[in-house]
Amino acid sequence: MEQSEKHSEAAWLMTGSITFLAIVALGVVLLYTRGVLIPFVLALFIVSLVAPILDFQVLRLRVPRPVAAALTFIFVIVVIIGLALVITQSVQTILNTADTYSQSIADLIGRSLDTLGTWGFDLRNQDIISEIRKGIPRFVTNTIGTAFGFLSKSFFVLIFILFLLIGRNPRVIRTGVYADIDLQVRRYIGIKLAASLITALLVYATLSAIKLKLAALFAVLAFFLNFIPSIGSIISTLLPVPIAAAQFEASALWAVLYVILVPGVIQTTIGNIIEPRFQGRELNLHPITVLIALLFWGLLWGIPGMFLAIPMTAVIRIVLMQFESFRFVVDLLAGKLPQSKHPDPKMD
C-alpha cells in the first residue's frame, strides 16, 4: 500500500515536472515565432467563423468549391476593410482632438490639485500637470501605433485565410478533437462578436444621449475591448471619464457618474448575464484561469494575445482532455482542485 502511494506520488511529480518544462519551452517558441503565429492563429479563428458560409454554398447551393472559397474570401476582405476604415476614422478623431482634450484634462486636474492644496495637501501641481501633458500625447502615439500595427498584419492574415479556405473541403465529415475545437471556437467567437456589437451600439446610444463628444470612438473601443474578458469592459467603461469631466465642467460629477454607471450596467448585464447563457459551460474555464490566460498570452503576444487568450486556452484544454496523464491539468483549468484522500479508519 505504502509502496503504491510512493509510486503514484513519483509519477505525479514526474508528470508535473514534464508539464512545467513543456510550458516553458512552448512559451519560448511562441515568443520568438509570434510574428508568424499571431496572423496564422487569427486566420484560423476567422476561417472557423466563416466556414459555414463556404460549406453552405458548396453543400446546399451546389456552388463549385473554388468559386465558393473566392466568394467567402471576398466577404472576409469586405469585413476587414470595414474594420480598417473604422479604425482609421477613430485614429483620425484621436489626432484631431488630442491637443484640445489633453489641455482640458490637464486644466481640470490642475484645478483639482489646487483644491487639494487648499485642504492642506502639498502637491507639486506644475510638475504633475507637465507630466500629464507629456503623457497624453505619448498614450495617443502608442494607441495609433497599435492600430496601424493591426492593419499592417492584416495582409498576412488575408494570405493565410485564402490558403485555408482553398484547402477546406466541406464534404469531409470532421469528428473527434478537430470537430470539438471547431465547434467550440466558432460558438465562442460568434457569440462574442454579437455581444460586442450589441454592447457597442448601446454604449453609443447611451453616450450620445448626453451629447458626449467622441461617443462613436468610445463605442468602437467598447466593441474591440469587449473581446478581452473582464479587463476590457472595465477599461472601456473608464475611458470616457476624463472627456466627460472636461466637457461638462459645471456638472462634471453627474456626467462622470453617468458615463460610469450606465455603460457599466450595460457591460455587466451583457457580459455576466446574457452572454454566459448563450455560451453555456462549453469552454468550462474558471475565472482565475481566464485571468491567468490573459496575463500569459498578453505577456507573450501583447494586445493580440489578450484578444486570443480565451479561445487559445480552450483549444489547449480540449487537446489535453485526450490524454489521461494531463487530466489533473484539465481539472485545474476548470477550477476543480484535486480531492484530498481521507485516511482509512481501519488503519488507525
How does this structure look, described?
- With 348 residues, the chain is mostly helical.
- Helices cover 82% and strands 0% of the residues.
- The protein has eleven helices and no strands.
- The chain has helices spanning 2-32, 34-59, 65-118, 125-167, 176-209, 215-225, 231-238, 240-247, 252-279, 287-320, 327-333.
- Helix 2 packs across helix 10 (287-320) and helix 5 (176-209) packs antiparallel against helix 10 (287-320).
- The longest helix is centred in the first third of the chain and has 54 residues, at 65-118.
- It is globular and about 70 Å long.
- It starts with a helix and ends in a 15-residue tail after the last helix.
- Residues 340-348 have low confidence and may be disordered.
Taken from the alpha-carbon principal axes, the silhouette is globular
Q: Roughly how many Å apart are the termini?
A: 15 Å
Strand proportion: under 5%
User: Spans with pLDDT under 50 lasting ≥5 residues?
Assistant: 340-348
Mean pLDDT: 78
Following the backbone from N to C, one meets helices and strands in this order, namely HHHHHHHHHHH
Q: Residue share in helices?
A: over 70%
Q: Count every beta strand, where a strand is a DSSP E run of 2 or more residues.
A: 0
Q: What structural category do the secondary elements indicate?
A: mainly alpha
The largest sheet is:
none
Q: Give the radius of gyration.
A: 25 Å
Oligomer: single chain
Number of helices: 11
